Structures are given as structure tokens and as C-alpha cells.
Amino acid sequence: MMQNPKSLALKKFMVQVMGNKAAPYDDLFARLGTSLITDNDLKVFGEMVNDILGIGYRKAVEDYRGQLEKLGVGVSLITKD
Is residue 27 part of a domain? Predict the structure, then answer.
């Protein structure tokens, strides 16, 4: 049986993002892949995941900024957006 190419692309992308933590979600990626109909759907999904990661990163930096500065570590975050 041939797998959905979008499911394979989605799984590959999520493995790049999550590393070995992606394996438990293989079935979910397969089901999500069938919902991503067009190449643009896959592209936009990837952009969304990247945006979520960026938001989480910026929040973590802000959350720990005060603690790091108390340790003498200056924090400055420069973003493209």
C-alpha cells in the first residue's frame, strides 16, 4: 500500500522539528497528512509550526530574562518580525 506523500512530508518535517520525540505521534501525522490536500496546505502548516515555536521561544526568553539578569547574563532578542 502506498502512503500519502503529504503524510510522509509532514512526518519528515515533524521529525526535523521534534527529533526522537516525534515517534509516538506517527499515527497522528498520517491522519493529519490526509487533511493537508494541497502543497500550500503543507507549506502553511509548516509556517504555523515554526510560528508556534518562535512564540514559545520568545516567551521563554521573556519569562527568564529577570532571572538571567540577576546572574549577570544580559539578554537581548532580535527578531525579523
Answer: yes
Q: What is the pLDDT of residues 8-17, one digit of tens each?
A: 889 999 999 9
- Biggest CA–CA distance in the chain, Å, is 58
- At residue 21, the pLDDT reads 95
Q: Give yes or no for a contact between 73 and 66, defined as CB atoms under 8 angstroms apart.
A: no
Question: 52: domain range?
Answer: 5-70
Report whether 79 contacts 59 (CB < 8 A).
no
Q: Which among 56, 51, 37, 49 has a CA at the least distance from the CA of 80?
A: 51
Residue type, 14: M
- The tally of domains found in the chain comes to 1
- pLDDT surpassing 60 at residue 2: no
Indicate yes or no: pTM above 0.85.
no
Residue type, 52: I
- Assess if residue 81 is contained within a domain: no
